[in-house]
């Protein structure tokens, strides 16, 4: 049975399911209910097969490898599913499965507005593209499926095409993703030049003997190319626009898993394609960029009032956390501390899994809210906990997980990342220690700010009173949405409860990577998470006991202090005015104080307008308006000058475009002649 | 069957090359079409060489199709165009005749230089013919550049195609009959579309001079 599952036929069945789902949805396009059902059921089926395949590969430790030759000599459709590929396949399949279940109900609000056939087509092709990306074992084949993933996700970003900002976000995504692809192609071409092969295995063997300069070049190109997909700052500019523009279940896939394909390939490049101890600066660069991305990501999220954009910025933050784990692993590898490198890498992969679950959960929650209120503006929500109690509960679980609060999963992977960073601070000296300290500080800030951000996101969305008629009319999300959210909420809790066991399993995956072989891993129980250095340990039962103890103590104290008092429920005193949603603290007001602290980075442009009853006395304000906007420093100081320069060069080049066919043919003749002369002049 | 003498092949290539040169010199559209027909006839003879050396039904079909398209259909469309729009003398050029001849001579001489030496390795004993076909390609490209009339430019493109076909034959770049059929079908469709398009342009602008079409960009 295992052999059948891991056979090429078993893998083909996964891709076939998505293909049938995609084409069937397209053919059923006119019958939107049938198209939606078909596309999502096949996506769920394909994801289930993907889960089965990856779990089998991880449990048995087998590494299936197979390929299909093509008539093009340089192209081979090669696949190899080692432990790392199987892990990412598992993450993709898990999120895709719940996303398909969620979409069964979610797509209903597109009925009569947008075609369900094309949504089914692109969603299935997108998931298949991601699966092919993490299983491809040949550079050219990889580039083809990478492009499949990028293009299908682009069409999903512009799915709601009547919204001009979606088209704009899609265009930016399209440009950035292809700039990234250009760098990836350069990296592969450099490796092809050194090894003469596009096969991943041959590249890994050949690059061991490559010059340090060439290896550095490949690393840099790969960091830019895959970093653009992962959303590392400053290549993140596309992400806050593109992820929210897509339908919510697709946003969950993009934020939860698609950006991780960039991380997957960075790990492949740094540990497989460029074997041997990496130079110290590789790890420090990744660690530093992770620290910057996590801190700035959460700061931008704090200043955001579009719920989905807020979540998208948190993806940048979490990619930063993953990179801090991975960067520290590379630093340890370069210094020869394999056991510590193992710790950093486990933290990175564990957080990859955790982020996929809680980020998908949060996007699902946001989607449920948006489908009821028809707006992404957080200021127009409020009081939704009464009309959407289950959604509120699931969103709260996601908020606790992303804020790294125990016993949810986010806490444990961030705890491991902290341990890796502390180990670096304790091991290295001077510059390296400073970078690790930057990481520790950044992660500490990030944790606190993320919690503040989700107090805002949850509080302003679900608590108090509705601030718009739509929020007042909202009803609970359909069953399939709640089922998907419940599954993920449970997963965030479960992955936290058995964090010890999960870290052990992830450790086995990391140890299967050639670069990490030889690193010892202390056996851990399912509920105890411990660091090999003996520096720290965290026990879930102990943690639970403390939490329960504190809660019991607080409840007991309250009971003791208030016993005998009579509780009377009455109307809140409101100075004689009616209580309305306008009296509540807004998201802008909540984040304003924190934004003020970080105004050097965020560059807020605050504007306050007050209209008085009597302009001379200025005692009785009639109305007040606070407008808090943020300048995008990356756009202002990097992308806009770059765009200006590109347009200037393009303007010069445009001069050769004279609109006369004779001249164009003349260019061809001149070029041909020039090339022939060059050929003749060659020695 | 007895193999065709190299002199015959060289003669055919000279005919193709000469037609390309005379396409530059002729002032009448009808003469230009006739020159193209003559050039195509020479190319068809060249195509007959492999067809008769190794006869096959598909090869003969490809040959018949080529003859039909280049010697019958193309002139039919072009003469129809000339008749419909009275394009008897519509041959205007950017460069005058002496300069044109000088450039043709330079291009032809260029193809005999070291730059093209590597190409002669492709030809099995027919390097002169091969280089003549390269000269035909270059001169045809120049024809498209130098002519203002859309019809002349179309003929330049077709002459270029004839040059490429003869080059492929002399270079020994085997073409399957299926591919040849596909190319011929492609040319047929192109001729039809281009003719219809040119008629539409004439109706709109009253001229086939491409410089008059600048208004298209406004």
List the helices and strands and how they pair.
The complex is a heterodimer of chains A (683) and B (218).
Chain A: H1 2-5, H2 8-27, H3 32-60, E1 65-69, E2 76-80, H4 83-106, H5 116-135, H6 139-157, H7 164-195, H8 200-207, H9 212-230, H10 239-245, H11 248-273, H12 280-302, H13 307-335, H14 338-373, H15 384-387, H16 389-402, H17 409-427, H18 430-462, H19 469-473, H20 479-497, H21 499-512, E3 528-530, E4 537-539, H22 540-562, H23 587-597, H24 599-602, E5 604-612, E6 621-630, H25 633-653, H26 661-681
Antiparallel strand pairs in A: 1-2, 3-4, 5-6
Chain B: H1 6-25, H2 29-53, H3 57-85, H4 97-111, H5 117-120, H6 127-146, H7 150-170, H8 177-205
* Shape category of chain A: globular
Question: DSSP strand (E) fraction of chain B?
Answer: under 5%
Tally the helices of chain A. Answer: 26
Q: How many beta strands in the DSSP annotation of chain B?
A: 0
Distance between the termini of chain B: 61 Å
Number of domains of chain B: 1
Work out the radius of gyration of chain B. 18 Å
Mean pLDDT of chain A: 90
């Amino acid at each position: 049975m295992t052999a059948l599952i891991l056979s090429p036929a078993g893998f083909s069945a996964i891709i076939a399911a998505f293909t049938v789902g995609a084409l069937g949805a397209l053919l059923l396009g006119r019958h939107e209910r049938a198209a939606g059902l078909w596309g999502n059921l096949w996506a769920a089926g394909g994801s289930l097969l993907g889960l089965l395949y990856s779990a089998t590969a991880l449990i048995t430790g087998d590494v299936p490898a197979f390929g299909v030759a093509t008539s093009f000599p340089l192209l081979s459709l090669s696949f190899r599913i080692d432990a790392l590929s199987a892990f990412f396949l598992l993450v993709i399949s898990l999120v895709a499965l719940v996303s398909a279940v969620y979409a069964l109900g979610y797509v209903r609000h597109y009925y009569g507005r947008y075609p369900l056939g094309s949504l089914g087509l692109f969603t299935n092709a997108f998931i298949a593209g991601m699966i092919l990306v993490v299983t491809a074992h040949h550079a050219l084949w990889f580039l083809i499926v990478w492009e499949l993933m990028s293009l299908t996700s682009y069409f999903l970003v512009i799915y709601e095409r009547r919204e001009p900002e979606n088209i704009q976000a899609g265009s930016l995504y399209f440009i950035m993703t292809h700039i990234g692809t250009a760098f990836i192609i350069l990296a592969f071409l450099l490796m092809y030049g050194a090894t003469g092969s596009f096969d991943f295995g041959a590249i890994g063997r050949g690059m061991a003997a490559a010059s340090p300069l060439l290896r550095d070049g490949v690393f840099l190109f790969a960091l830019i190319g895959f970093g653009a997909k992962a959303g590392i700052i400053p290549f993140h500019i596309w992400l806050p626009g593109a992820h929210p523009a897509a339908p919510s279940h697709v946003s969950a896939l993009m934020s939860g898993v698609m950006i991780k394909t960039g991380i997957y390939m960075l790990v492949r490049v740094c540990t497989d394609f460029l074997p041997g101890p990496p130079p110290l600066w590789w790890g420090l660069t990744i660690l530093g960029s992770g620290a910057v991305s996590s801190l700035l990501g959460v700061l931008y999220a704090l200043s955001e009032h579009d719920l989905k954009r807020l979540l998208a910025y948190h993806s940048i933050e979490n990619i930063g956390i993953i990179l801090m784990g991975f960067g520290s692993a590379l630093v340890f590898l370069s210094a020869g501390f394999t056991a510590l490198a193992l710790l950093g890498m486990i933290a990175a992969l564990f957080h990859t899994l955790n982020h996929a679950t809680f980020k998908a959960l949060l996007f699902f929650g946001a989607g449920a809210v948006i489908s009821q209120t028809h707006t992404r503006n957080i200021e127009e929500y409020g009081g939704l906990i009464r009309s959407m109690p289950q959604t509120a509960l699931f969103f709260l679980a996601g908020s606790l997980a992303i804020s790294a609060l125990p016993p949810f999963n986010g806490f444990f992977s961030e705890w491991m990342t902290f341990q890796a960073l502390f180990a670096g601070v304790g091991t290295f000296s001077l510059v390296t220690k400073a970078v690790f300290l930057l990481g520790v500080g950044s992660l500490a800030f990030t944790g606190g700010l993320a919690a503040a951000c989700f107090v805002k996101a949850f509080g302003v969305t679900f608590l108090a009173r509705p601030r718009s008629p739509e929020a007042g009319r909202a009803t609970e999300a359909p069953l399939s949405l709640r089922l998907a959210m419940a599954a993920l909420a449970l997963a965030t809790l479960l992955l936290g409860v058995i964090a010890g066991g999960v870290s052990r399993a992830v450790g086995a995956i990391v140890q299967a990577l050639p670069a990490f072989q030889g690193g010892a891993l202390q056996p851990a129980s399912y509920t105890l998470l411990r660091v090999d250095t003996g520096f720290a340990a965290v026990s879930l039962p102990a943690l639970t006991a403390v939490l329960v103890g504190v809660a019991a103590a607080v409840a007991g104290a309250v009971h003791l202090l208030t016993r005998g008092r009579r509780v009377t429920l009455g109307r809140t005193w409101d100075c004689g005015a009616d209580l309305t949603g306008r009296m509540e603290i807004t998201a802008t007001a909540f984040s304003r104080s924190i934004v003020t602290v970080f105004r050097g980075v965020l560059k807020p442009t605050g504007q306050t307008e007050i209209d008085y009853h009597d302009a001379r006395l200025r005692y009785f304000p009639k109305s007040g308006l606070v407008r808090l906007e943020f300048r995008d420093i990356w756009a202002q100081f990097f992308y806009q000058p770059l765009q200006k320069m590109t347009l200037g060069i393009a303007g010069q080049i445009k001069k050769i475009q004279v609109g006369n066919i004779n001249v164009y043919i003349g260019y061809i003749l001149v070029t041909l002649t020039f090339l022939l002369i060059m050929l003749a002049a060659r020695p | 069957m007895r193999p065709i003498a190299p002199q015959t092949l060289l003669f055919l290539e000279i005919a193709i090359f000469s037609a390309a040169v005379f396409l530059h010199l002729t002032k009448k559209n009808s003469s230009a079409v006739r020159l193209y027909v003559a050039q195509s006839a020479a190319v068809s003879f060249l195509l007959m060489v492999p067809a008769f050396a190794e006869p096959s039904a598909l090869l003969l079909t490809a040959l018949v199709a080529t003859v039909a398209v280049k010697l019958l259909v193309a002139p039919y469309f072009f003469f129809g165009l000339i008749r419909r729009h009275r394009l008897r003398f519509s041959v205007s050029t950017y460069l005058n005749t002496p300069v044109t001849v000088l450039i043709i001579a330079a291009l032809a001489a260029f193809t005999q230089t070291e730059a093209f030496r590597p190409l002669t390795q492709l030809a099995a004993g027919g390097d002169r013919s091969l280089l003549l076909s390269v000269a035909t390609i270059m001169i045809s490209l120049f024809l498209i550049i130098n002519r203002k009339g859309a019809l002349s430019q179309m003929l330049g493109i077709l002459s270029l195609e004839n040059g490429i076909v003869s080059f492929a034959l002399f270079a020994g770049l085997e073409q399957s009959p299926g591919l040849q059929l596909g190319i011929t079908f492609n040319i047929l469709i192109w001729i039809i579309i281009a003719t219809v398009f040119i008629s539409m342009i004439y109706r709109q602008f009253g001229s086939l001079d491409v410089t008059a079409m600048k208004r298209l960009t406004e």
